[in-house]
Design brief:
By secondary structure, the chain is mainly β. Helix content is 2%, strand content 44%.
């Protein structure tokens, strides 16, 4: 449905081999703190609300979407390298009640995708660096109970202008080849998908048939499911089975809800093995599912250290961004990401409590720069508010 930072240098953020050579060397905890990445504000919007996604074709062609507070208008922002402006939503999107998603389609094209709640047969839209034009939406799934549009989750993957996948229903994935959408049938219900390469796509979810799904009080014991597209068909791939010890809790089951493609052919999948709590004394503990595709099979992973055990958001130059606040380095260290404070010009007093929430991430093509959309929650007596922001990642020591 992925996908949360950077131990490597971000040249576009002003870091690089030309850093001052006379900086004193740090050691121990000081060295780790100095090497930790941090967010910096690229833009603080002039309204109260949140930004939910960001994408860019270049440093002077950045787009962000969001919404004003209290059910206010959906907002589309554009940065041309000099200033941010509020832009009208492209025609053809229909009535948009929720912020659409922004998807990068290669180095020359962005997509604006309505989410669940859009009305009618709305088209999608694509930006070619100069203008927005209509893009056909995938066909509706006759088996889906609602309109066939992606939800807020990461269940659409755009690898390029002629290669995109989207879940249009629990058992249907549609492929875009540059001219039309082609629906394909999945062997098992899926919750998320990821494109690892050409003709190399994964969909993950659960299954209620096959090994390990024997009936428990009349219901199947759901097991994690992973399905692979090889260019011709979706094929199930075996995953580890999960089962609680006897006595079994009520309605047990295991499923996957997140998949993230990494460099080098590795793929991560995350999910949960749980049950209906409150119906058994001495209940077992639910457990997180962490799987890694090593090129030949799915293997279980040990939980990472610290609070990096949460679901990863994005794969960033050799490590994992976790929930926007932590970065799991390639050598297994969990590093906290530095968070800036709003300037007082944004209406935040110096003593206010502030917290940043990151909702959408995007790498600027052709650079090592990562951007994220989100908002800063400002808690203060009598007048709490949320400030929409676009933040840029800086590596430690820059």
């Amino acid at each position: 449905m992925t996908a949360a930072i950077l131990a490597a240098v971000l040249a576009a953020a002003g870091c690089g081999p030309d850093a001052p050579p006379d900086r004193p060397a740090a050691s121990g905890a000081d060295a780790e703190a100095a090497a930790a990445p941090s967010w910096e504000f690229l833009h603080v919007a002039d309204f109260r609300g949140r930004l939910t996604d960001v994408a860019a074709l270049a440093a002077d062609d950045v787009w962000a979407v969001g919404a004003e507070d209290d059910g206010g208008a959906v907002v589309l922002l554009h940065h041309d390298g000099a200033r941010w402006t509020r832009e009208p939503l492209p025609e053809g999107l229909g009535e948009v009640r929720y912020p659409p998603r922004l998807e990068g389609a290669g180095a020359e094209e962005l997509w604006l995708v309505p989410v669940a709640g859009a009305e009618g047969d709305a088209s999608w839209a694509r930006w070619d660096g100069a203008r927005w034009s209509a893009l056909p939406a995938p066909p509706r799934d006759a088996d889906a109970a609602s309109a066939v549009l992606p939800t807020a989750g990461p269940d659409i993957e755009v690898a390029g202008p002629d290669d995109a996948w989207v879940l249009t229903g629990p058992r249907t994935a549609a492929h875009w080849d540059g001219g039309r959408w082609t629906p394909t049938r999945l062997p098992h219900p899926a919750a998320d998908l990821a494109v690892a390469g050409p003709d190399d796509v994964w969909a993950v979810g659960h299954r209620t048939t096959g090994p390990g799904t024997g009936s428990v009080a009349g219901l199947p014991y759901a097991q994690p499911a992973a399905t692979h597209w090889d260019g011709t068909a979706w094929k199930p791939v075996r995953t580890p089975r999960y089962r609680f010890d006897e006595p079994l809790p009520a309605e047990p089951g295991a499923s996957l809800d997140r998949v993230l493609a990494l460099d080098g052919g590795e793929v991560l999948a995350r999910g949960r093995h749980t049950f209906n709590h409150g119906e058994l004394e001495n209940e077992p503990r639910s457990e997180d599912i962490r799987l890694r595709w090593d090129g030949s099979r799915w293997v279980r992973q040990e939980p990472p250290p610290g609070r990096c055990d949460r679901a990863p958001v994005a794969w960033v130059d050799g490590g994992l961004l976790v929930d926007g606040h932590r970065y799991l380095t390639g050598d297994g260290r969990c590093v906290r990401i530095g968070i800036p404070r709003l300037p007082e010009s944004a209406g935040a007093r110096g003593t206010s409590k502030q917290s940043l929430r990151v909702e959408g991430t995007h790498r600027v093509p052709g650079s090592g720069e990562w951007l994220a959309a989100g908002h800063v929650r400002v808690d203060r007596s009598g007048d709490p508010f949320a400030a929409p922001v676009v933040v840029r990642l800086r590596s430690g020591g820059s």
